[in-house]
Amino acid sequence: MQENRADRPLQPGDRAPNVVLDAITRQGKIAIDDFRGQKPLLVGLFRGLHCPFCRRQIAAMAELTDALQEKGIDSLTVVNTPIERARLYFRYHPLPNLLAASDPERVSHRAFGLPRVHFTETENEWPHKVSKDAVMSMRVDMPGELPEPMNPMAAMEILDRADGYEMTEDDKRMLVPGEGQLVGEFLLDRDGVVRWCFTEVEEAGRHMFGVPAPREVMSAAANMAV
C-alpha cells in the first residue's frame, strides 16, 4: 500500500488520511478510519517515549480524555516507540482511558505533514533545517519543573533525571532516525476532516516542547458539532 505523505502540516478543512497502527493499550490494530463516520477524534502525534517533553505532552492530552468523551469525542495518542517498549512503559505509567498506538517508523507524522527538522552547523530553514546554535539559543520554560528557562538539551537532562527514565536499546534505536521530528495534535470531525490543530511547526517553532492550553482544546471541541 502506498504511504500517505503530506507536504505541509494538515490544516482545518483538510481531510485526514487513514493510517493503520499497532495498538499499545489493547490488542490488534487501530486505524483512523475506525472512527470515520462514527465519532470525532483528537489525534496526538508525538515523538518516542524517550522524549521527556512528549511524556508531558501525552499526560496533558490524557487529562482531557474524560472532558472530551463527555462531548462524544475520542482521543488517540501515537508514539514513535516500538510496541513492546511502549506497552512496558504504560504498564508502569498507566494513564486512565488512554488509547495509544505505536508508530516507530513515523508513518502517521508524514501522513499528517509533520516534518523532521535536520540539525545543521549553520543553516536555518524552518521547519526543515535548524542550526545547532539556534537550538542551543532556544529556551524551555517549565516553572515548577525547571529551575529557570534553559536550552532543550539541559532541560531534557533535568526532566529525565526527575522522571527516573532509563534509556533502553529500543529508545536508542529511535533517537537517530527520529531526532528532530516535530509533533502536533489534530481534532478531526466525525468525517475525518481537521477542524483544529496545534503543531510545533507553527509560528517558526514558537510552540516547541509546549502543549495547547486546555481551554483552547475544549473550545475547539465545543465549537464542533458532534
Automatic annotation (TrEMBL):
> From what superkingdom does this record's organism come?
Bacteria
User: Which Gene Ontology molecular-function terms are recorded?
Assistant: antioxidant activity; oxidoreductase activity
Q: Where is the Thioredoxin domain?
A: 10-223
What is the residue range of the signal peptide feature? none
The molecule here is called Peroxiredoxin
Q: Organism, per UniProt?
A: Rhizobium sophoriradicis
